[in-house]
Specification:
This protein has one domain: Beta Complex (Metal Binding Protein, Guanine Nucleotide Exchange Factor, Chain A). The chain has 1 helix and 12 strands, in the order βββαβββββββββ. The chain has a 7-stranded mixed β-sheet. It has a 3-stranded antiparallel β-sheet with strand order 1-2-5, with no helix packed on it. It has a two-stranded antiparallel sheet with strand order 11-12. A hairpin with a 2-residue loop joins β6 and β7. The protein is globular.
């Protein structure tokens, strides 16, 4: 560690080699991924599909351009399911660990925040809050559905 870095925390093995690159893996570690650069957006989704897929009341998302996301190990173990043409959900066939969801209509990939644990997750908003089963008072904007630039109403609900 350089002397001027002594006050910065550097995460352990999940930290990748290059600055701005973060790595993560499925539950068993057979599939490893890397994300590079900065995501287009970060936040929390409350839609029924994300809640059901994640087995959680809310899903922490980070949206990336596809060129910024790479499977660096275990590509043959990645399975895909899509209930609609808007979301291609991917997981490890060995352990069932969730990895990411491709959203081709937005040209973005949601790499679940928990999949890249050393990435500094800084959520900016909640989406699909009209479907929320867990109300969260964190001061972030609560979008009824999605921002208008992503095809939603752009309506912000009160916290």
């Amino acid at each position: 560690m350089a002397p001027d870095d002594k006050h910065h925390h550097h995460p352990g093995p999940a930290r990748a080699r290059a600055e701005g690159t973060h790595s993560g893996a499925c539950f068993c570690g057979a599939v490893r991924i890397e994300v590079t650069g900065e995501p287009a957006a970060m936040g929390y989704c409350h839609c029924e599909s994300c809640r059901s897929w994640s087995a959680s009341p809310v899903n922490a998302f980070s949206l990336w351009k596809p060129a910024s996301v790479r499977v660096v190990q275990g590509a043959d173990d990645v399975e895909t399911f899509h209930r609609t043409p808007r979301s291609f959900r991917q997981w490890c066939r060995r352990c069932g660990g969730h990895l990411m969801t491709g959203h081709p209509h937005w040209d973005l990939v949601d790499v679940y925040a928990a999949t890249i644990p050393a990435f500094p997750f800084h959520p900016a908003l909640h989406v699909n809050y009209q479907e929320a089963t867990l109300r969260i008072k964190d001061g972030l904007p609560k979008m009824k559905d999605l921002p208008s630039e992503m095809g939603g109403s752009g309506i912000v609900l009160t916290e």
